[in-house]
Amino acid sequence: MSGEHSATDGPAGVTGRQRHGWVTVGIVALVMVLNVFQQPGLVTFDTKLDLQFNPAGFIDRSLSLWNADWAIGGLQNQASGFLFPMGPAFLLGDALGLPMWLWERLWSAAVMLLAYGGARRLASYWPGVTRWGAVVAGLTYMLAPRVLTTVGTLSGEALPAAVLPWTVLPLVLYLRGRLHWAVALLWSGASVSWMGGQNATLVLACLVFPGLLLALGEGRTWRRRVRDVTVWSVLVLLASLWWLVPLFLLGGYGPPFLDFIESATNTASVTGWLSSLRGTSHWVAFLPDGGGAGLSGGHALARSPVLLLTTVAVAGLGLLGLAQAGLWQRRVLMVSLLAGMFVLTVGTGGWAGSVLSGAWIDALDTWLAPLRNVHKFDPLVRLPLSLGVGGFVSVGLPRLLASSPRPVATTRPVRAALAGVVAALVAAAALPAISGQLRTEGGAEDISTSWRQAAAFLSSEPGPVSAIVLPGAGVAAQYWGRTIDEPIQVLDAPPWISRAQVTVAPAGTLRYLDSIERLVEAGRPQAGLVDAIRRLGVTHVVVRNDLDDEETDAPPAEAVYASLGGDPDVVSVARFGQTAAGEPEVEVLSLGGGARDPRAGIAEWADLQVVQGGPEVVSDLVADGLLGADQPTVLAEGEDGETVDILTDSNRRVERTFGRVHSAVSGVMTAGDDFRFHRPVHDYVGGSVPAATTTAEYDGAEQLRASSSGGYADVFGPVRPEEHPYAAFDDSAFTAWASAPFSPPEDQWIEAQFDRPVDPGQVELQFDVQGGAQVSVVRLTTDDGEVTVPVPADGRTEAVNLPGTRTTRVRMTVVEAATGRRQVRLAGFVMSDHRITRSLRLPGKATPQTTVHLSSEAPERACRTTSQGVACSQGWQRETSETPGFDRTFDVVATGEWRLAGRVVATHGRVTEQLLTPLSPAQVTVVSTTTFAGDPAVGAAQAFDGLTDTGWYASPLDPAPGLQLSWQRKRVITGIRAVLRQGQEGYLPEFLRVDPMTPDGATQLVATTGPRAGVMTPIRTQRLNITALVDPSHSDGVGISELEIDGLEDLRHTPDPTAATGVPCGFGPTIEVGGATFETGVTGTIGDVVTGAPLDLQVCGDDDVVLHRGAQRLKVTNAEGFAVSSLWLTPSAPTVAVRSAPPTSEVTSWSSSERVVEVDAEEEAVLVLPQSYNRGWRATVDGRTLDSVVLDGWKQGWRVPAGTDGVVEMSFEPQDAFRLSLVLGLSVAALLALLTLMTLALSRRRPERFRGSEGRPPAPARRTAATVTLRVVGLLVGGLALAVMSVPLLAGAAAGHVTRRAALPGLSVAVGSALLFAVLIAIADPAPVMAPPPASDAIVALVVGLVAGRMLSGQPEGVGR
């Protein structure tokens, strides 16, 4: 391209060119330094972890649409878009052998300099911008907040914007007559390939500005404009085919994963006028520390009051620059700015926002979902403003100085100083980057050795191997480094899977993976967990102990060990690394499985079970023995007349926060409950997931509502269903409705609504003031009025008479509470004459041949038992509304008989601890003052059982923790030693106070450490009271692994974990169903009680459950210390099928897109592949296409006809089109690049042949009735468009039109004062500046309208000087 500058530069001397060159060198050097000194020596996440650690493997994987590296398969999201230029760029760095941390810093610097160089060069050819104005324009564009937010963490998002000026530059040369139109369009179109295809929305956003320039740029007839836009669009399309076709294939064959990520409410309703104008519209940066991606620099830019001032000042200067009459094509620039602001702000409602906000949000959540991240349209605003800043420095600033009455204002030093001030304001945005926040925090020198060794070990294991990484995590943040993506992803390991926050998978797959995580998170042995994992085709479990628990929502590794504990098939086969606590960083567990090929299986079609429920219930059915380990299922739709084999209460109506993996769903909702989020999808639904859901029904209330709740999905942080409003009315003393965290307790309310007027009687309230806010005054409201009620310090109110007698609602509102933002916790909302209970209603209907399976919201204990010992945390304990029992309602179509069975888990308290005491009165019985969370795993008996790997752990709140030992006959005690094994919970006290509990026995202090440890004066007694002297410096409780008591060695009781235990018939949970009450007993082992493993529920007697046609109610009342976790009714006379020889299958060939399996099936069968169902897969046998079927709600299957003995060939049909599009698309893009290089070289040699003709401005239109009418219509339409965007914008435009002849100084004062006022309002507001009040947005919209009104209403040339 020509090196010519704009006409306003004037003659450039050698000295000026040299200064300009030195400035460029300085900027390049500063950008390099800024990048290189960000966490030097550490590789940080950038867009894709594979780019930093395995670019070759990533490029190879990107050549396939189907990702076979994921154990259950799936489509890759825009992976082929990395094939150019990002993939090759990082591959080059890897090939050169440079340290990757340095190479990625050079890459980020290159992207920044690409943005600077392009914007500077574009500005230098833009009439109205001088050479030095172009430098400032380049700096403004390079240091824009969005570039600084993404360039070090998501450079794939920064790259298209960096290429944009280079795409526009040839078009400017053409429009100015410096380049032939065909060559200009070729160069511009070819440059689009350099934007890459890793983010299609950003590329689309970046194409709007050059499209507007071609369509609206003056100096051409409309016919030429249509030609230019058409040819350019075709060239852009050709340059993008290599990633555009794969994108359409992803949309056609991929799941609707956009439904399962952030909603438009998150992305588009928070980007108001102030944030959008200054460039801080990236919603992820609004999250604490920049969210999971670690956009900490963007977070600092968004919330800093100082940077708010500087970035608004820069944007204001850009607006003033755009107002300069001498700036070329400034109306196009303003149209681009308004278009960008429309996309960015129209989702913001309120009086300062758009009337279309609701419709826009709905559109972004549905048919415009790919555009949901509206912040990607920031370049439409940023490039015009950058050129405007350049124009202000070039023309506006000299004009302002010229209007000054003081001659000194026009001198070169003053102009240079003021230009320096502008440059300093621009550079201020880089302050977070200068402080080290340009990149994701938590870089690593390399992927940890432990992970590399684990991946290598898995690769060396014989047979087909696939692994699941547990626990899953929203983002992979390890204590050795924050990789965001999974470390195993880049290590060429065998196929693997892990539940992560963003996964391109169908709803059924995600729900099944969540069921695995749910079983793991419970932290107790799960009978069916191994079989559930095997159904994924998984052979190994990779347990991660290296997650940073402060950065992730994942359960600890102890939960994985506890949930898999006791299964004989689970074997530890390798351990790698060591944590500070002595645990392996990464451990590999084998699941056994014998010679079975996990990749494919076959089963008889007759064995297939029709299940009413969601995919998540399959693992429960396997655990409870209602399904075989490999028995396939299909999910029923819940339609009338549909026959099901198993009816379940799964697929519950809940609301999910998609930004979390764990603790992500609300309490069960009624059919009429409104969702908290405004979005079309509220859970993983659609596809094979049935639409019919299990819903809550209240007896005694139509609806329970609250102002906020920790059990609602819109809460910040983990969602706690046990804090749902129903928790205030349930039978559990341990649950409570809790308001949302971080919200003031005042004005929080909870309300019961009735379907008819009722007399609730007196009301008593019980607040949990220990765990929640200290509420002092509340207000109770009914239809007839309200009454104010004081709340005593203990949180329990006296019985209160409500206004009136009958009411359709009762509301409690907090009026006063202690200062702070603690949650309101209401544990009891008791109405003396009215009770509210809940039942969950199942969809579908049961026939006499249907099995009914029910699952409760079982509690979770505070302690988890693994092979390494017991770990406890108060945060692990979860009480639920169904801990006391649960209630279900289902429909039966005909009278039948069923057998009742179930499983029970031991909870906490004295009852479960007593199961560990000796049966013989001659042995020592131990009781304690307290036990941590009442958990039997750390009960008193473990302190004197002869085992050091067990122990007693007292409550941290116990002021005098102690043990009382008793035995039948007196003994002489000569010494007492206390031991605390390393790694056990608690601390060992320095002294024990020993009381023999005899009339003449004196209390002694016995040391636990040192030379006199255990030494005491002998005593004769049959009881001992041993009390620990608490050390106030310890925050945890006292712990004792073992007491060694001289004189009682032979009376010690060592419980046998395999010994039978439980409660006898009649003392277990009670079940009411079908008009009868069934007493039960509980059987299991001591080990089951300690670990929390399921115990068997035994129904007393042999009576069957008789259910008649109609709605049936089943109610479970739990016994103390136990909770029913699952319950099922099986037909008393099950059908027995006649079996033939089982079908067989053998894999003979396997690749990412083609598979061959030999099958032999006498009867009709189903071929099962443990991969996500996708309609793109096709299976044939002997040329016949097999019918596909979705198994387990997520799995790929095909029906195999009876008598089939042959080869089933499977292929992923879109793969051929995918590869063809890559080959042809990249070839066309390369051809366009080659033509560009050839014409560029020729233009250097013979520039006269490539010049175009200068577009002539259109002749002034004659004033006729038609032109006047057209102008009036245009003004009306334009005014309506502005009003739709924002009423303040329209008001500003009207003011701009009226004052369009005002001089520049007046405009500058008006714009500057208004923007400063908007900033001050935002700073003064209590909310963070990233969420400014509507007044600030209104003022900004007014200012933008003021400038737009001057420009778009035909301001005469020269006005505003």
TrEMBL record:
Keywords: Membrane, Transferase, Transmembrane, Transmembrane helix
All copies of domain Alpha-(1->3)-arabinofuranosyltransferase N-terminal GT-C, residue ranges: 31-680
InterPro entries the UniProt entry points to: AftD_N, Galactose-bd-like_sf
Pfam families: GT-C_AftD
GO molecular function: transferase activity
Transmembrane segments: 20-37, 82-103, 123-144, 156-175, 195-217, 229-250, 306-328, 335-361, 381-402, 414-434, 1220-1242, 1272-1296, 1302-1323
Keyword check for Glycoprotein: no
Annotated protein name in UniProt: Arabinofuranan 3-O-arabinosyltransferase
